[in-house]
Amino acid sequence: MLMGEERRALCAYGRRAIESGLVIGTSGNLSVRSGDLVAVTPSGVALDRMTPQDCPVLDIEGYVVSGERQPSSETPMHLAVYAATDATAVVHTHSVFGAVVATTMTELPPIHYNALLLGGTIRVARYATYGTPELAANVMEALAGRQAVLMANHGGVTLGADLETAFEATRLLEWLCEVYVRAKGVGEPRVLTEEELGAVVERALNPQAFPRREPVHGSDVPDIEPGK
Ligand SMILES: [Zn+2]
């Protein structure tokens, strides 16, 4: 089967997306690129009910080359990401807190340093009807320099070098949105300054090296002996 491994991976991550509550039924789609081919989840099939054969394969110009089912309606957006970035996986969901932020804000400010893993402030792409080239263009505009974007009154999109990375980016995006929304319910969240974010990058690039003690007699015996 053409792109068999990638199509099986789409099914595995589709199940994970449903099980983790990021997706209900068909309200999300995933894709993987390999060279000039893209395997994508099908239109109208719940993400935990797909088989690898259900996932069509398209060339980079959008022509279906394998699979009987229609590609996800959001395929133009996936192809636009691949045309403009070196990403090899894209995940899109209508996760709850992502949708809350996407319906109320124009960007998600960095109130937690983990936002840096997605590029910092997450922009909300201007609203356009789902599946249209206009929405794809708005997403590309808002995505510049980021691993994630929110689509106004819709949901989130993340990308990565593989499905695992793109999927974890979606989980992180949802977590950041949830933290913001919950923090907003308690008080006004403090946004990290450019200087504070810069210091985090500096820290990540220069991790602390912990000194190691020279082993002394008996110190290399494990705390728990095997079998006990
Ligand atoms: Zn959608």
Summed up, what is this model?
With 228 residues, this protein is α+β, with helices and mostly antiparallel strands. It has helices at 4-19, 75-84, 96-104, 133-143, 163-186, 194-205; strands at 28-34, 37-40, 57-59, 64-66, 89-93, 107-108, 122-125, 148-151, 155-160.
Describe this structure in words.
With 228 residues, the protein is an alpha+beta fold. It has a single domain, classed as L-fuculose-1-phosphate Aldolase, CATH 3.40.225.10. It has a nine-stranded mixed β-sheet, with helices on both faces. A hairpin with a 2-residue loop joins strand 1 and strand 2. Helix 2 packs across helix 4 and helix 3 packs across helix 5. The mean pLDDT is 95. The structure holds zinc ion.
Mean pLDDT figure:
95
Care to count the β-strands?
Answer: 9
By CATH, the topology is: L-fuculose-1-phosphate Aldolase
Helix content: 25-40%
The general outline is globular
Q: What is the top-level CATH class?
A: Alpha Beta
Class based on secondary structure composition and strand pairing: alpha+beta
Secondary-structure blueprint:
Blueprint: H1 4-19, E1 28-34, E2 37-40, E3 57-59, E4 64-66, H2 75-84, E5 89-93, H3 96-104, E6 107-108, E7 122-125, H4 133-143, E8 148-151, E9 155-160, H5 163-186, H6 194-205
Parallel strand pairs: 7-8
Antiparallel strand pairs: 1-2, 1-5, 2-3, 3-4, 5-9, 6-7, 8-9
Helix pairs in contact: 2-4, 3-5
The structure holds zinc ion.
